[in-house]
Specification:
Elements (H helix, E strand, L loop, with lengths): L2 E5 L9 H9 L6 E5 H4 L7 H9 L3 E7 L7 H10 L17 E8 L16 H4 L1 H9 L3 E2 L3 E4 L9 H23 L1
Parallel strand pairs: 1-2, 1-3, 3-4, 4-5, 4-6
Helix pairs in contact: 1-7
């Protein structure tokens, strides 16, 4: 089954990493469905039934976003709150996500060395994103380690080497997604 990639970037036109990843995914429509929340829900009102049906129709789910204050952008948080409902995602009858491979693909605007106990952040990226792991554990999903790109801050300029790293990350992302689907 195809992988559903839910993209949540409030200003995708200004993105370097997430926009490049999407361009790579769109080359493989037989393998990936890219669903841009900010383009689809400009009014912020999420169609819960449509979103649940979209998740049900796919074998894997990836939430792709830039890390915002050690969390996701607001519309993705709303999506999680609205879509992962009692009776669908959890509770005695909520079994739709049980065993479904779910992972995060994130871009962090700081170097990987910042996401260490000794770094500026003081913890790993996985530790910072622990609420997602807990959520997926709670609903019985098969939560996988995140895919991450470090170091491109949209507010800073980049050189050719940084842009080459972005290009390599797009290829690495596809490899990671393939492994997600086959494990």
């Amino acid at each position: 089954m195809k992988t559903l990639v839910i993209v949540a970037h409030p200003d995708l036109a200004q993105s370097t990493v997430n926009r490049r990843w999407i361009a790579e995914l769109q080359k493989h429509p037989d393998r990936f469905t890219v669903h841009d929340l900010y383009a689809h829900y400009r009014n912020g009102k999420i169609d819960v039934a449509a979103e649940q049906a979209r998740v049900d129709a796919h074998g894997q789910l990836v939430l792709q976003f830039p890390v915002y204050w050690f969390n996701c952008p607001p519309l993705l948080k709303q999506w999680l709150d609205d879509v992962l409902t009692y009776g669908w995602a959890y509770g005695s009858q909520g079994k739709q996500l049980r065993g479904k491979p779910i992972a995060l693909a994130v871009s962090a605007g700081t170097p990987a060395t910042d996401y260490t106990p000794e770094g500026a952040i003081g913890c790993t990226l996985a530790e910072a994103l622990r609420p997602f792991a807990l959520t997926m554990q709670y609903v019985g999903a098969d939560y996988r380690p995140p895919f991450a790109f470090y170091g491109i801050d949209s507010n800073a300029g980049y050189d050719a080497a940084a842009l080459q790293r972005v290009e390599q990350s797009a290829a690495d992302y596809l490899t990671w997604l393939q492994q997600l689907a086959t494990r």
